[in-house]
Amino acid sequence: MPTTPSAAFHSSRESPAPVTDLPSPTHHYSLGQRCRSLYHELGYRLSERVRWSRRPYHEVPVERLTDLASWQTALIDRLQARYEIRFESRYGQHTSLANYAYLDLLDQAWTSTGRTIPRSGLVTDVGCANFWYARTLHRFFRPATLTGVDVEGFRLYPTGYSRYDAAAGYIADLPHTSFAIANYCERNEQVDVITAWFPFVTPAPVLAWRLPLTVFSPERLFARIARNLAPGGTFVMVNQGTEEAAIAADYCRRVGLHSQGEWMHPRPLRPRPHPPVASWWTA
Ligand SMILES: C[S@@+](CC[C@H](N)C(=O)[O-])C[C@H]1O[C@@H](n2cnc3c(N)ncnc32)[C@H](O)[C@@H]1O
C-alpha cells in the first residue's frame, strides 16, 4: 500500500545550515527596487506569520481540452499514451496544458539527448511554487520520494485558499510526496535528483513574483544544491531562454557543478517569450 502523502510544514529551522556555504555578495538595487522589495517583504512576512489554510484545494477537471492546434493535440495524445496520464481528468485547462508542457520538455530533452532517466531515487524540486506539476515529476522520475520545496508557503489566492492548500491538493494522491516550506539555502539533505524550473538568477523576476529581494541569493542557492546532491546525482535545471540559462550556468560552475549537457526546446507546447532551456549537472 502506498503511504499517504502529506503537505508537511518543514520549517527551515529544522535543518540549520552549517556556515560552509559561499558568502552572499551584496547585490546593488535601485531605490525603486528596494521600495518594492520592502512592500513585498511586508506581505510575505505577514502571510508566513498568519499561515492561512482552509483545506486541500482541488481543481475542477476540465475533462476535455479545447482550442488546441492539431500539432498540440497530436503531441498530447503521444504523451498520454507514453505516460498513461490524462491531466484534464484532474485539473482545469490551464494546469493540464502546463503539465503536458513540462512533461513534454522532460520527455523530449531526455529522449533527444539519449539519456537514461534517473528513476526510483530521492527527488527534490527547488522553488516548486504550489507544486502544480508534482504529478508530472512523479510520472517521469517514478521517485522513491518526491519533495517540493518553496520559501513561500502561504501566499493567499483570490479563491480564499493559500499556496499550502493548493499544494496539499496537488500532492493528495501521490505516494511518498510532500511539500516543504523552507528556504532551500538552509536545507540539509542528500538526494539523487534535484530539479529547478525557472529559478531566480536575476532580481527583476523576484519582484515580479511579489517576493522581497531578501530571498534572492543565487550564490547560496546553487551552493546548497551542489552540496545536497548525492554522489552520482543529477541536477536538472530549466531556464527561460539562452541568456538566463548562461547566467544560471555560471552560478553552477562557480559552485563546482559539472555540465552534462544542455538542450533548448524547439517548439514548446505552450508558447513562451523565451524558449525553455534544459541543462544537466553533476556534483
Ligand atoms: C520563477 S518561480 C518558479 C516556480 C515553479 N518552479 C514553476 O515552474 O512554476 C520561482 C520559485 O522559487 C521560489 N524560491 C525562490 N527562492 C527560493 C529559495 N531560496 N528556496 C525555496 N524556494 C525559493 C519562489 O518562491 C518561487 O515560487
Per CATH, what is the topology?
Answer: Rossmann fold
Task: State the domain count.
Answer: 1
CATH 4th-level superfamily: Vaccinia Virus protein VP39
The strands making up the biggest β-sheet line up spatially as 1-4-3-2-5-6-8-7
| Weakly predicted, low-confidence segments | 1-23
* Text of the CATH class: Alpha Beta
Number of strands: 8
Radius of gyration computed on alpha carbons? 18 Å
Number of helices: 8
The rough form would be described as globular
Structural class: alpha/beta
The average pLDDT score comes to 91
End-to-end Cα distance: 34 Å
% residues in beta strands: 15-25%
Describe the structure.
It contains eight helices and eight strands, in the order βαααβαβαββααβαββ. By secondary structure, the protein is α/β, with parallel strands linked by helices. Strands 1-4-3-2-5-6-8-7 form an eight-stranded mixed beta sheet. Helix 3 (93-112) runs parallel beside helix 4. The radius of gyration is 18 Å and the shape is globular. The model is unreliable at 1-23 (pLDDT under 50). Bound molecules: S-adenosylmethionine. Residues 126-129, 149-152, 183-185, 197-198, 200, 205, 209, 211, 215, 221 line the site of S-adenosylmethionine.
TL;DR?
This protein has 283 residues and is an alpha/beta fold.
Short key terms for the protein model shown above:
single chain; 283 residues; alpha/beta; eight-stranded mixed β-sheet; 18% strand; binds S-adenosylmethionine
Topology:
Blueprint: E1 6-7, H1 31-50, H2 70-83, H3 93-112, E2 122-126, H4 134-141, E3 145-150, H5 163-170, E4 177-181, E5 191-197, H6 203-208, H7 218-228, E6 229-240, H8 241-254, E7 258-264, E8 276-282
Parallel strand pairs: 1-4, 2-3, 2-5, 3-4, 5-6
Antiparallel strand pairs: 6-8, 7-8
Helix pairs in contact: 3-4
